[in-house]
Design a protein that fits this description.
By secondary structure, this protein is of the alpha+beta class. The protein has seven helices and 14 strands. The protein folds into two domains: 147 residues, Nuclear Transport Factor 2, Chain: A (Roll); 128 residues, Roll (Nuclear Transport Factor 2, Chain: A). The strands form three sheets. A six-stranded mixed sheet has the order 3-2-7-6-5-4. Strands 10-9-14-13-12-11 form a six-stranded mixed sheet, covered by helices on one side.
Length: 310
């Protein structure tokens, strides 16, 4: 082969390789984060619209991933879509004939565009015509079939007006290709696990409220309790909420994650675990615990984790 032909052949191979690289690792897309959030919010709304035409159990189950996790009474989790549906059925016999709809008021996505969260307000319509308002929080993972919920929590709220206006979305600066490096994802998972444990550890000394302020984003939310009409917004407000009945220093509870899910971009994830009272139970009384999950966010894989929704 002549030098000219060899040079042309090498140039051709280089061009093919460049095309392959651009296909496998496309350039980040600046400004695409909002579009990804809009798609997730549209999905959440579509599931709500479909739920309006069926029973509560079917309506919620339709959006559950096969491995969904849902806190249930008794300090437990319903693990998997089948057990989650069973838990909804057992929670109230009327659920099989009730309907539930909901409205998301905020969403967010990871930089790889494959993980996200939504939260908002719901309405349960019972067979007798009564309705019960509620709140919900969902962590989503985009699967071949589309967005599906992998962690879900719902709670009642008192009757009262709430704003259904959309809050500003939690969007990354750019959407990047999914990073399927198992070792890197394991490191991201470990860093989030450590952040949750450090959060609990610090609460034992500085107090529960101050810890929630320190580890929360300024725009973080907490669903609040069954006596809170609205979702609680802001780390400072959440700190005041959880401080009620707490000592000035230290904490009445400690917690840790048993499972961590994290996006390949290392900027969004969820911790799933249990909260336990520090005081020992009374003699002859079993120890109590409370199931929780917390959604965490950070600007990049090198920034500190801060919770954004729980």
């Amino acid at each position: 082969m002549s030098r000219t032909r060899l040079a042309l052949a090498l140039l051709g191979l280089a061009a093919v390789a460049a095309c392959a690289r651009s296909t496998v690792n496309p350039a980040p897309v600046v400004g695409a984060g909002q579009a990804a959030v809009d798609e997730l919010l549209a999905t959440d709304r579509a599931f709500s619209a479909a739920s309006a035409r069926t029973d509560l159990i079917s309506g919620l189950s339709a959006m559950f991933a096969a491995d969904v996790t849902m806190p249930i009474p008794g300090g437990q989790f319903a693990e998997g879509a089948v057990k989650a549906a069973d838990a909804l059925r057992e929670a109230n016999p009327d659920n099989a004939q009730s309907r539930v709809t909901w409205t998301p008021v905020r969403g967010g996505v990871s930089a790889d565009g494959l993980h996200g969260f939504t939260f908002g307000y719901s309405k349960l319509s019972a067979p007798d015509g009564t309705s019960t308002p509620g709140k919900y929080l969902a962590y989503w993972v985009k699967q071949p079939a589309g967005w599906r919920v992998t962690a879900y929590r719902r709670t009642r709220r008192p009757t009262g007006d709430v704003s259904l206006a959309l809050m500003p979305a939690a969007v990354p600066a750019q959407i990047v290709p999914a990073f399927m490096d198992s070792a890197a994802i394991a490191r991201f998972r470990e860093s989030l696990d450590s952040a949750e444990r450090t959060f609990s550890h610090d609460a034992q000394t500085i107090g529960l409220g101050p810890a929630f302020v320190r580890y929360g984003r300024a725009d973080a939310i907490n669903l609040g309790g069954t006596n809170d009409t609205s979702i609680v917004v802001g780390a400072a407000a959440i700190g005041r909420l959880v401080s009620e009945g707490e000592p000035a220093t230290g904490s009445s509870v400690a917690w840790s994650p048993d499972r961590v899910i994290v996006a390949s971009s290392g900027d969004l994830g969820v911790t799933i675990g249990f909260i336990r009272p520090n005081a020992p139970p009374a003699a002859g009384t079993p120890a109590t615990r409370f199931a929780f999950f917390t959604i965490w966010d950070r600007a990049s894989a090198s920034d500190p984790w801060r919770y954004i929704a729980e």
